[in-house]
Amino acid sequence: MEMITHQVRAWLLGPHLFSYIPICYLSFVIARWIYRLSPLHPLAKFPAPKSLLCMSQWSEFYYNVIHHGRFVFFIEQWHKELGPIIRIGPDEIHISDPSFYNICYGPGHKYIRDKDFYDPILGRLNATATIFGVPEYKHRRSIVNPLFSKSSIRKLEDVILTHGRAFKRAVSEESKAAQAGGKGICLSRLFGCLAADIISGYVYGSSFNFLETNRDADFFECIAAVARFLPIASYFRYLQAPLFLLPVAVLKRLVPSTLRSLLDLEEYCGILADKYLDRRTSGNPTEKPEHQTTIFGTILAAETPSFKPTRDMMIGEAATSLGAGYHTTSWTLTRAAYAAAINPTIQQTLHEELATAFPEGTSEITVSACEKLPYLTAFVKETLRVAPGVPGRLPRTVPPEGLVCHQKFIPSGYKVSMSAHVMHQNPQIYPNPTEFNPTRWLNTTPSSEVEKNLVAFSKGSRNCLGFNLAMAELHTALAFLFRRFKISLHKDNTLTGEWVDSYVITLHGQLMISAEEYSD
C-alpha cells in the first residue's frame, strides 16, 4: 500500500502531470461533443442542419464572422429546409412560427435575455439595455421612458424639423456642386449627419450640427468600428471581462486602432456627464429650462433616497442611445432612399402624395402630418420590413415551466430565439416577401397579420426605447427628400441594398445619387 501511495504521489508531483492537462481537456471536449449529438441531449429531438454537426459556438462564429454577418440568412434557409422550429446551437432553438413571438417577447413574458449573448455586446456600459434583472430593468426603463414618449417627441418637433430643413438645404447645395463637378451626392452620409444631429441634441442638449459643419468623419468611423466589433464580441467574452476592468486610457493602448474610437466616444460622454454632475454639486440647476429633455437631465432628476445616479450610468445611457439612434436610423433611411431610387413608380407616388399634402408656399412639413400620410407610412413600414434595425436573433432563456413548441418540449434553462428578418420574410404573412411593395400596408388595421408581425422594433417591455423618435425621423426625413427632389442612382454608387447583421443592420457601400429639384 505504501508503494502504491508513493507511486501516486510521484505521478501527481512529477514532470508528467502537465502533459496530461491537454489530453484531459481534449477528452472533455470530445465527450461534450458526443453528448450534444447523442439522443440523450434534451434538444436532440429537434432538427438541425448537417453543417452544424460540431454543435459548438464556433459553428456560429463561422457563419456570423467568417461569412460576415450572414448567420441570419443561413437560419432563414434552414427553416425552409427543416421546418418552423430548428436547433441552431448546442443549447439553442430558433423558431419561425409567428404565433410564438408574443410568448417569447410580448408583454408580460417570462423569458429573460440570454446573458452569454448580450453581455459581451453591451456589458461594459451601465445602461438600461444592459440590465438583465427584471425589477431593476423596469425601474431604469421607467426613468428614461418619458424622454422617448410620443408626447416628448411632439415637444421637440421644432428641433426635428429644423434639422430636416438643414438636411434639405444640404442635399440642394451638394446637388448643385455635384452637377458642376460631375460627381454624385453621398446621400448615406447626409442621412448619417441628420440622424447624428437629432440624437445628439436629444441626448446631450446640444447638437453635433454635422449638416452645417461637415465635421462628421471621426464620429462615423467610431460607429463603423463598433459595428465591425459587435459580431465578434460574444465569441471572446472571457477575454473582455478582465480588459473591461482597466481604465480607458490603458485600454486604448491594448485594443486595435479600430476600437479606440469607441473608447473616445465613451470618454466624450464622460466629459459631458461630468459637466452635468458639476452643476448639481455646485448647487446650480441641473439643466436650463430649454434642456429639460436630455438623457443626463432626466437621469439626475430621477434621484431618490433609494436611487443614486452615477457617472457610469449616465455614460452608459448616453453612449447606447447615441449609437443606436444614429446607426439604425441612418441605414434605414439609406435603404428607403435606395428602394425609391430604383423604383421610379414608387418614388413618383411618394412625391405626388407629399406635394398634395404640403403645397409649395402654403403648408409646412410637420411630424404629425407626415405620420398621417398613408403611402409615406406604408413606404416606411415596408422599408422596416425588408431592413429591420436589429434583424437577427434575440436569444431568451426558457423559464422554469419550460416551453411546448409544435408538440415538442424545450426544458427550462435552454435558449430560444426568433429573428425579425425571418418573421418579415414569411410568405404566408407577406406574399412575395423579397419584393419591395409598399401597397401591402395600405388599408390595413392594427389587428391585421401584416401589422401584428412587423417586429422591426421588437415588442413588449424590451422593445426599442427610441421607437417614437425613430418613426418621427423616418417620416420627416423622407418627406423633406421626396417632396423636393427626384433622385436616381449615380454611376459612382456602390450600395446594392443588401445588408449584414452586425447585431444592428449594416449596409455595404455608399448610396451615391443624382438629385433634380421639382418645380412644384
Structure description:
The chain is an alpha+beta fold. It has a single domain (37-517), classed as Cytochrome p450 (Orthogonal Bundle). The chain is built from 23 helices and twelve strands. It has helices at 2-13, 17-37, 57-66, 71-82, 101-105, 115-122, 134-144, 150-155, 157-181, 187-204, 210-213, 217-233, 237-243, 248-254, 257-281, 295-301, 311-341, 344-357, 367-371, 374-386, 420-424, 449-452, 467-484; strands spanning 85-89, 92-95, 112-113, 185-186, 396-397, 403-405, 408-410, 415-417, 485-489, 499-502, 504-507, 512-517. A five-stranded mixed beta sheet has the order 1-2-8-5-3. The chain has a three-stranded antiparallel beta sheet with strand order 4-12-9. Strand 6 and strand 7 (408-410) form a beta hairpin. It is globular. The model is unreliable at 286-291 (pLDDT under 50).
